[in-house]
Amino acid sequence: MKALSIVAAFLGGVTLGAAAGILFAPEKGEDTRRKIAEVLRKKGIRLNRAEMEDLVDQIAAEVKDAE
C-alpha cells in the first residue's frame, strides 16, 4: 500500500509539473509535448503517442478547470 502511495504522489508531481510547463511555455504545443516526453523518459516512464496525447489532454483540462 505504501508503494502505491509513492507512485501516486510521483505521478501527481509529474502531472503538476507538466501542467505548469504547459501553462507557462511560450512554445508550440508540439515542442512542449516533446519536452514532456523527454522528462518522462528520464524518469523511466515510456508513453506511446496516443498515451502522450491523452496525458496532455488531461493536463490541459486540469489547467483549464483551475483557472
UniProtKB/TrEMBL annotation:
It comes from the Bacteria. It holds the Pfam family YtxH. This is YtxH domain-containing protein.
